[in-house]
Amino acid sequence: MEHAVSTETPEDAEPERADGTPAEGAQVSEAEAELAAQRLERERIEQRKAERQGPIEAGGKLSGTAADLLAAVRAVESGEKPAAPVFEEARPAPRRAAPEPVRRAPAVAPGVPAAGAVEDVREVLVQGGAPEGLAVQAAGVLGEGAAEVLRADPWQLLRIAGVRPEQADGFARALLGAEAGPGDERRGRAVTVWLLEQAAPAGHTVLEMAALTDALGRQGVPDPEEAVQNAISEGDVLVFQDALEEAGEDEEQPVRVQVGLERFAMAEESLADGLARLVNSVPEPDGAGEEWERAAASAEGSAGELIRAVAGHGLVLHTGGEASVAEPAALLNAAHGLGLRVWAATHGPVGRARFASLVEGPGVATVAGLLSGTEGPGRDADGALDVDLLVVLDAPQLDVEAAALVTESLPDGARLVLAGDPGVLWSVGPGRVFADLLAARVCPQIASRRPDPGPLGELVSGIGVGELNQVAAPGKEVVIVPVRDAGEAVHRTVQLVADSVPRAIGVPVEETQVITPGHGGAAGTRVLNAALKERLNPGPGRFGGFDPGDRVAYSPAPGRMLPGRVVRADGEGLHLACGGEEIVVPPERVEQSVRHGWALTAHQAVGCRWPAVIVVLPGDAAQALSRPWVYTAFGRAGRHLSVVHGVEQALPRAVAEVAAKPRTTRLPALLAPQVPAGADG
Prior knowledge:
The chain is of the alpha/beta class. Helices cover about 40% and strands about 15% of the residues. The protein is built from 25 helices and 19 strands. The strands form four sheets. Strands 6-5-7-8-4-9 form a six-stranded parallel β-sheet, with helices on both faces. Strand 5, helix 14 and strand 6 form a beta-alpha-beta unit. The longest helix has 21 residues.
């Protein structure tokens, strides 16, 4: 099935980009951990490429059937073959064994570009009419000789976050004059890469060939197929094929042709290798079989099933709602009692604190902190985590890069449990790892039978199966507040936060969270946060619009959000208290990575819960609603949910009919040849 290319980023990724370089002298903290993990993944990929292939010519980065496909493309270009059969001759890759993991020590932050290089880039940018402020970022992204790169190929400006094709076109015309045109080979290659970069925050690890060429046509590329072929030949992108179905002995094998960036393609391949290693490895006998069984027998319901599954398998999936987290906690406590080295990892510090209250003995870290080395058990001499069992909660939030790092970090014989609620929004980043694994059925899957309690649990459970039910709420657990327009929605929201919820429900302002579908619009996070700041913490906003006491959402990297408060501001930057630690955001990064946080989007709120939640649904939000969005937003409430309702029948229609947007990934196809049938036993 072919999917249209979306060049819009998810709701919480809009301007929240980080430059990847901490302030001079700053310590690497929880807030910087995700950036360190991403840098580690890129370095690991480079090492993996070097170990596998050695020196290669441009465009030679492919192997196996992908290399055959590239050879066919080049044959067409040279006139040796007609174009029609190029994408019809490939065959699926044979089954292969999962290789040993490649492990690296956590990466350190790269240095800032040299001042001279930045000045050279600034000169080129000014000459081409581009903003001087892009100079540092361009020098960092394009590397040594960035100025010469831009002069030779002005469309490389598209590699800078936030730059669009029409802006790069203007830059190219200023530098090249009449030589610059929509059919320029350099433009076609650069736009191809740019489209794949834009697809990643929307969740795609690859794009189907037809979807990519359609998108290139919409960007004014006159010959999209040639543009893709040029990008393949130059090694800018990789091409893959996966079998669609089994073919008969004399039948041609139908295949799906897909194109992707090397970074995400290699991460997904590494993830498949690591998962296959876990699935295909039976944990070493630890002399505790009877103890495992006694622990399972003493656990309640599906918690016992989880313990039994983990006792005999290297990879186990666990699904369930908020109440089900008690079952991974029971597993960890039991394994700790057996003398195993056990750790858990959550999506963020709020989830870490909540889960830590359920376990005694096992350590709890964030995924980013675990991978960067700022939290967790540390690593052995081989670079593997010192664990026998790792449980990753909030598993739907794992993108392919983070998931690949987790699997490669585990030593041989270790067990991995991925646990989470499959109904919530997927990761802000490429892949749908948890959903793909559930669909692939390559390992045991334990579904919790522990329901979320009360009227809120009943409401959210119904949404999960496509039903928006009326529930009895004698304690005002659920309140619907109808509104006619966005202005009234903003007014009623401020009233609820500042007065009604504290007075009628008994939840203070600081424990009440507003959730709305997007940042923009008449009742988006920007408008709501401005109104809430004016009511709750008015001030001049002397430091980038912020004052001490402001509630904020800090994003150290796209898709990562830490809720916190402003402590103070000085020459070093904005001092925040986030998840029990103090973070200093340098002045030049405040605009990119800090927002006011009284109101969040549902993507930002994943992995967190608050005693009271107010979900704002203005009329212009109808098109943004889906079942996963409503499930996620409503499910953030612990004691009370108010719905500021202005979308009429769009809400039940979204719950009943609008599923998650499809994502194009390769993980199931990569796992199939490596995992024997029936491995989910």
